[in-house]
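Standup notes, structure subgroup. Blocker cleared on the zinc ion input:
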Amino acid sequence: MEFSSKLLERAVNEMSQLPGIGKRTALRLVLHLLRQPKEQTTALSQALQDMRNTIKFCESCHNISDFKLCEICANPNRNETIICVVEDVKDVMAIENTSSFKGLYHVLGGKISPMDGIGPHDLNIETLVNKVKQGVVKELIFALSSTMEGDTTNFYIYKQIQDYKVVTSTIARGISVGDELEYADEITLGRSIVNRIPFETSLKL
Ligand SMILES: [Zn+2]
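Run returned:
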């Protein structure tokens, strides 16, 4: 792609670093911004900088948060004895949208994947195990995608906590997961949480 301006080229190159944005789309977006009032670009870049510089992760569940504790963990009406274990922040949002779950979450930050060099210690597993050890948690719901990596991660956590008094369950796999939770429709996802099955049962399937 030949550019008539180095400034334009730089903006397009930066924009095209984003997932799903090729050079052509990046050029279209940049040209769009050029046609808009300057204030719009300022607001966009300021929002991104503020988000990147000041956003925090909840000290308890690792969800993205503006405060030390996220709104879910800080809410006294949530049931702290049930924890739904998810891969990432998108899954929290998907499950919250169902309004079917009133417990807390634990965001692992991914799943165990030896192929990608991701081991248990790269994920927020230790903090989860510590929560279980403290004895407040009565049930863990595994809501990871039903891929081999998801199953491996579930099983690893299960092994770590099986000696403690905690019930483990997994979301009913009627949903065609394999794909991610965020793509499941709200009713199906909500139902799969309500109709969760004991984790041990899922191992025999
Ligand atoms: Zn939290």
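Discussed briefly. Residues 58, 60-61, 63, 69-70, 72-73 surround zinc ion (CB under 6 Å).
Next: hand off to the docking folks.
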